Predict the structure.
Amino acid sequence: MSLSRYLLKAIGAPVFMASTVFLGLIFALPKAHAADTPNSALEKSLASVQQSHRSGAETQLKVDDLSAESRALYQEYQQVLRQAETTEAYNRQLSRLINSQQLELSSIDGQIQSLEETDRSLLPMLVRMVATLDRFVAQDQPFLLDERRQRVARLETLLDRADVSLAEKYRQILEAYQVEADYGRSLEAYEGNVMTAEGERQVTFLRLGRVALYYQSANGLVGGLWLPQQQSWQQLDSEDNRVLKNAIAMARQQIVPELLNLPLPLPTVNSSEGDA
């Protein structure tokens, strides 16, 4: 055997052995792969199931959160709805109240306008009432003339005062009329001065309502009766003076009331009635 063949044989033996090992590895790889495939599929399935469970749990958590949020929103909606109903009821009541106030304001405006019209017509009427009272005092029997004239003068001054309301002016004028009316229902004796033929003298007056007016001197010897038609005094006789003295004592409540026999003036005749 030559050296070259020997080398080839020496070299070829390992080559053949290497080829055999390589081929063995090649054929062994598919078997190993085939042996690992079921385990990998199971792991993948388990992983997929676990992932699915995790996704389901996360979804359920989201659903629970949405459900809780929905309940909270629903409760809030119910609360807002109740508040809206309460507000609407309050608005209805407030609207009725406003309407009532509007009607009341309209009524007050009407009353104010009516009062303004009344004031415009009342003031001239008050002026006429005071003027009428002044004429009445001047034409009436001359008793308490100073007091009555001063009352009329105060009313005339009152009419010109801007700080006094028309209602107060009206009240005081009516009060003056009431005082004049009360004179006709009372018996009164008071001191005063009278002008006689002998001159002015101090006397005691006796007013018998508005029917008659008398005077008597301090000594009781001179007395007189006012005659409205003549606008003068008529002297009384001694008997009438005695009765007049008792009447004065009766007016002062010094004696018990009794029937008086005093002369009376003739009634005043209206000129228009006399012509008729």
The first helix runs from residue 3 to 139. The two ends are 204 Å apart (CA to CA). Residues 1-35, 271-276 have pLDDT under 50 and may be disordered. The longest strand covers residues 187-196.
